[in-house]
Write a structure and sequence with these properties.
about 120 residues; mainly alpha; Diphtheria Toxin Repressor, domain 2; 2 domains; two-stranded antiparallel ribbon; 2 strands; about 70% helix
Length: about 120
């Protein structure tokens, strides 16, 4: 399944918020991302259709197993790339912003090579 960048951003946000709180609602995603509630509701609906997110009886968003795997992968890319850029001397704000762009387009082959390099030579 080829998820668009925006869908990946929503998954990553739900994942990050779920690490900080026991329950994540659409309004939390809206506030975190700075998007309108209707935009978030539409995006969450699309992710539900893809089988990546579900909403429980109390209205909390939960990543499905497939959603969690994808979200963890996206988040890992973000953290590894941010760290690499900062180690190269890029300031944290720029590194984080650039990593957020790169994480959606970099190939698995290139990312795996970067990750292996970081593990071998300093992360």
């Amino acid at each position: 399944m080829a998820l668009q960048e925006s869908g990946e951003m929503y998954l990553e946000t739900i994942y990050i918020l779920s690490q900080k709180s026991t329950g994540v609602r659409s309004v939390d995603v809206s506030e975190h991302m700075g998007y309108s509630k209707p935009s978030v509701t539409r995006a969450i609906g699309l992710l539900k259709d893809e089988g990546l997110v579900r909403k429980d009886d109390d209205g909390f968003l939960k990543l499905t197993e497939a959603g969690k795997i994808l979200a963890k992968r996206i988040y890992e890319r973000h953290t590894v790339l941010s760290t690499m850029l900062m180690q190269l001397g890029v300031d944290e704000a720029t590194a984080t912003e650039d990593a957020c762009r790169i994480e959606h387009y970099i190939s698995d082959t290139t990312f795996d090579a970067i990750k292996a390099h970081m593990q071998k030579y300093g992360s």
